[in-house]
Amino acid sequence: MARQLEIQQRRSAIKRQQSQKLTLEALGIKRLQQKVLHEDTPSIRGMIRKIAHLVEVREVEETETKEIAV
């Protein structure tokens, strides 16, 4: 089964570097407390590493994602 990452923005992007704001946007996060799901790939992990101080990440199994979507 493929692993997915649940990413939730916990801190504001106000007064942050433009590259960090663009990284949040690239992940599909538009507002505080929003959660998004992404496949666990090296590129996504790199984006998370860049904004680790702004987000909270949780690994989710594929079976759990079906429950979340319902």
In short:
This protein is of the alpha+beta class. The protein contains three helices and three strands, in the order βαβαβα.
Poorly predicted ranges: none
User: Strands of the largest sheet, in order across it?
Assistant: 2-1-3
CA gyration radius, whole angstroms: 12 Å
Largest sheet: 3 strands, antiparallel
CATH-derived architecture: 2-Layer Sandwich
Q: Kindly state the percentage of residues in helix.
A: 25-40%
Q: How would you describe the overall organization of this protein?
A:
- The protein is α+β, with helices and mostly antiparallel strands and 70 residues long.
- The protein has one domain: 2-Layer Sandwich (Ribosomal Protein L30, Chain: A), CATH 3.30.1390.20.
- It has helices at residues 18-27, 42-50, 62-69; strands at 4-9, 35-39, 55-60.
- Helix 1 crosses helix 2.
- It starts with a strand and ends with a helix.
- The mean pLDDT is 91.
Helices, strands, pairings?
Blueprint: E1 4-9, H1 18-27, E2 35-39, H2 42-50, E3 55-60, H3 62-69
Antiparallel strand pairs: 1-2, 1-3
Helix pairs in contact: 1-2
Which features would summarize this protein structure in a list?
70 residues; alpha+beta; Ribosomal Protein L30, Chain: A; 3-stranded antiparallel beta sheet; 3 helices; 3 strands
